[in-house]
Amino acid sequence: MACRLGIASQPSKFATEGKKVIWAVSFLDGPPRSWAQPLINAYLLDPESPPPQELASFDVLADALRALFGDPNLERNAVAALWSNARATQNFTWDVKFNKTENSLP
User: Fold this and answer.
1) Could you tell me which of 27, 29, 51, 54 has the fewest CB atoms within 10 Å of its CB?
2) Residue 61 · residue 4 · CB < 8 Å
3) What digits encode the pLDDT tens for the residues 5-18?
4) Domain boundaries along the sequence of the chain
């Protein structure tokens, strides 16, 4: 998400897919960076040749990373899902209590 916002906020800086991809790869760390480094090296050594398939566009890169390494925001998304479920349970509990009270009125 942060890369998409950065790219969207400066469209003139990222006029080509290649610039978007190289900028996004600069933020990778650990195993994703180890996976991308040989691809970037090959691309940068011969910029006249077409990029490797995984670097064809920012969206293709993001999809490849997600497929290989999973959700980059796993913890945040899990916490959000838990909070969402907790709110749904609270709403359901309130509805049950309200309906009991409403049904018990003369």
Assistant:
1) 29
2) no
3) 888 898 889 888 88
4) 1-72, 73-106
